[in-house]
Amino acid sequence: MRALTTTGAPRRVRAIATAELRLLVRNRTAMFTALALPLITVAGLSAIGFGENGDLPLGALVVTMLAGFTLLYVVYYNLVSAYVARREDLVLKRLRVGELTDAEILAGTALPSVVVAVTQVVLTAVVAALALGLDMPANALLVVVAVVGGVVMFVLLAAASTAFTRNVEMAQVSTLPVLFLCMGSLIFSGVVVPADSVPDAVQDVFQFVPLTPVLDLLQLGLTGRTADGDTVGFGASFSAAAFPLIIMGLWIVNGIAALRRWFRWEPRT
Amino acid sequence: MAEVVEVSDVRRSYGDYEAVRGVTFSVARGELFALLGTNGAGKTSTLEVVEGLARPSGGRIRVLGHDPYAGRASVRPRIGVMLQQGGFPADLTVTETAAMWAGTLTAPRPVAEALELVDLTHRAGVTVKQLSGGEKRRLDLALAVLGRPEVLFLDEPTTGLDPESRRNTWALVRTLLDDGVTVLLTTHYLDEAEELADRLAIMHRGRLVRTGTVAEVVASQPATVSFALPPSVPRERLPELAGALVVDDGNRVEVHTDTMQATLTGLLLWARDHDVELRELSARPASLEQAFLAVASSPEERDVEVAA
Ligand SMILES: Nc1ncnc2c1ncn2[C@@H]1O[C@H](COP(=O)(O)OP(=O)(O)O)[C@@H](O)[C@H]1O
Ligand SMILES: [Mg+2]
């Protein structure tokens, strides 16, 4: 019985994800957001010399920026739109009268965007390694945790953000607070400007923004550089990771709580 | 256990508006039970809590022996649901939609078979947004039967269908009943309830006002005996007849009676003894429509409307 339910869940999630992938491919705006926007943004910012004076070598800088923008556009923004669109079309309500659990519905809907996002990060890392001199990561485990944790966090934030997004058009506005804060964290977390040129008060605030732990863990994992700008070895990188991991964990726990409390499965009547 | 669906004193509120106000009924295995009511009566609100979509604000529900909300995992693989409104992504084709749904079910029929059942095979490659309202309804029905359910919940299954599709849907529902499927459906079509229901309830303003077989529900209403007297016979000469006398203009007379046989016997014996020819004589048992209209225009409604 247990074996049956565990083999059942991946199959059900795959069914939803397949349908969702078809819908993604057929939606030009979403396709542009998913495939081109992060690349264009990072290429554009690099071209105007963004991050030249920062602490990171070019390869690590490009990978970190791309991971950040991918999480924001492909995972967060795209999924707020997708969840709201499915809710307003009563698709979520219909899925809920079937055998799927609530978590499977949310996961299946998110899966295509998540796969696109992770693939982009991996491909960018490969290109950076080949062309931009990205060294072997100082702690590969932290890089993986940063990406996986970041995905989970922004899927949850997207689902929670649907509570204050009435329709798909409104997603363009309702996502701005999270998008702006997280872009601020790209600027102030030592990725594009040196950590010691950012006022402490600003750094103190931005360390709590959801994207910051992802960026901190990526820098740490890729180059061994901490949020304060020091460089540490493999062993010490774990203790330097503790604080961003806690912040990430808190966002995930809060995201789940917000989802449970405020997520609506059908349009407001 | 013969009762597949048991609903007792169920209530459902939206904010401080109570849409379902203490509803009790049960559906036996292999039976079709119809909830009949005007728009806004509370049929959908009732059906949704029975399907386990929401928790009722009061009362107790069992579907196949389980609480449909808390025991969702045990109940869902055995039921099929057709909601009042579809909920399909507009950009998927009919086949893709059905295949998606099949992928979420434990033991689905082949997709092609389900589409064949509802006569949608020729539309298989068309996107949902290009379907007519009736075709979407049939796609919905296809998904509801895709998992070979033991219990089927249908919320207004034939609204928006053309007459031929309605007949086809009825035929499919009857086939499923013959296979032992239990069906709970809502409708505002009297003929649909008369055609399909083993038992039905008339719902009005959140309550079940009548419950029983069509015959039982109709029996709550008086039969009508009507005739015309010849001009030479004034109405005053009629004997005492069982039932209420409702006199039309002219010479037509209508009697509403709960004892049609006694009324007719009295009338016909009098006519024979006095050599009166009753013209246009007819005796009609009550109809479901009559029972329905009597409920829909009940004084309670007028009171509420005045108060509102
Ligand atoms: N989500 C909701 N929020 C508030 N009121 C609702 C909601 N759904 C239905 N109602 C109200 O509850 C009553 C019963 O509605 P419904 O169950 O849809 O009736 P029916 O299916 O018989 O037409 C109506 O007055 C309707 O306006
Ligand atoms: Mg309804």
Automatic annotation (TrEMBL), chain A:
Keywords: Membrane, Transmembrane, Transmembrane helix. The keyword Transmembrane applies. Signal peptide: none annotated. Pfam families: ABC2_membrane. Residues 13-219 form the ABC-2 type transporter transmembrane domain. The keyword Transferase does not apply. InterPro entries: ABC-2_transporter, ABC2_TM. GO terms for cellular component: membrane. This is ABC transporter permease. The lineage of its organism: Bacteria, Bacillati, Actinomycetota, Actinomycetes, Jiangellales.
